[in-house]
Amino acid sequence: MKPYSVLLYYQYVPIEDPQVYRDAQHEFCVNNNLLGRIIIAPEGLNGTVSGLIEDCEAYMQWVKTDPRFASIDFKVEYHENHTFQKLHVRLKEEIVNSDLPVDPLKQTGVHLEPDDFKQMLKEDPDLIVIDMRSNYEHSVGKFKGAITFDMENLRELPQHMHEIEHLKGQGKKIVTYCTGGIKCEKASAYLLDQGFDNVYQLHGGIIKYGLEAGGEDFEGKCYVFDNRLTVDVNQVNPKVISTCYVCGTPSDRMINCANNECNIHVPMCEDCGWKMEGACSEACKCVPNKRVYDGTGYYPRKSDHYTPLQGLKSFKKSTKKADA
């Protein structure tokens, strides 16, 4: 057994005391040697952390002792060491940036468990599967035959509704999916709000599907937001669907460009990674003071430098905008 756990989780639930809960989360993680990113907002909790198995077990038990999170669903993977370099516990207006005018506590797509989704893929040839992730995420891996959008984040979803407008009124089942399920809570609700029917969402997302159903028919790898960058999902019929950004050979190895001003996420084979010093182009390779490539292509973002006071100011500022 690998000694470290990686937890992925979220729950939409009203939090009347987000600052107090942020401080409690931060204190517990510090005291239990957990690293990662946690977002707390008035609408709920969203997080991914890593730590020794026993420390992650203690964290899961602690979170669930709060009645608001008694039913939270933790996706648990295992790794050789920490998958994060720092701990960030932030206050935000939303637990996933969307700006979509929906409330998943009032309406959302029907939750579909991994085994049920797997069966539906086999039995329903008219099933419509829609990827709700960013373009760089589905470039390295997606479900076979899934509809994808060329969007950088979920806020752009309304701009792509015309691409699936023809699916309305056909009676076909529509299943949305994302990495861990959180984006689909609002994305599926938005589809319902826009007049789509028979809308489902893959509960727990790609990660849970891989853990519980073997990942069949997920092609490529799943992009994750830690220093692994991608993880294997399909244990049944895996396939590489991406190619190296530089040389075009098949590669599902993702990097962030070493030029901090660029920082695009692209597939890049190991040879090109070293040859380009982690940069996506010759122009980025020649930029002075680019980040030092260590063979992984993962770098903490500048915005990761954070203090609780900065988070509180940001949260208050966003709240004032929302009230205006």
Spell out the helices and strands N to C.
EHEEHEEEHEHEEHEHEEEEEHHH
Gross morphology is globular
The share of residues in helices is 25-40%
| Low-pLDDT residue intervals, each spanning 5 or more residues | 303-324
Specify the biggest β-sheet. 5 strands, mixed
Supply the helix-strand structural class. alpha/beta
Straight-line N-to-C gap? 52 Å
- How much is the average pLDDT? 92
* Widest beta sheet: strand line-up: 4-1-3-2-5
Number of strands: 15
Count of alpha/pi helices: 9
Can you describe this structure?
Helix content is 27%, strand content 20%. The chain has nine helices and 15 strands. It is globular.
Summarize, please.
The chain is α/β, with parallel strands linked by helices. The chain has helices at residues 18-31, 53-65, 114-123, 135-138, 182-193, 205-213, 270-275, 282-285, 308-323; strands at residues 4-12, 35-41, 44-52, 75-79, 87-91, 110-112, 128-131, 141-143, 174-177, 199-202, 218-220, 222-223, 230-231, 254-256, 265-267.
Write a concise keyword list for the protein shown above:
324 residues; alpha/beta; four-stranded parallel β-sheet; globular
Topology overview:
Layout: E1 4-12, H1 18-31, E2 35-41, E3 44-52, H2 53-65, E4 75-79, E5 87-91, E6 110-112, H3 114-123, E7 128-131, H4 135-138, E8 141-143, E9 174-177, H5 182-193, E10 199-202, H6 205-213, E11 218-220, E12 222-223, E13 230-231, E14 254-256, E15 265-267, H7 270-275, H8 282-285, H9 308-323
Parallel strand pairs: 2-5, 6-10, 7-9, 9-10
Antiparallel strand pairs: 1-3, 1-4, 2-3, 8-11, 12-13, 14-15
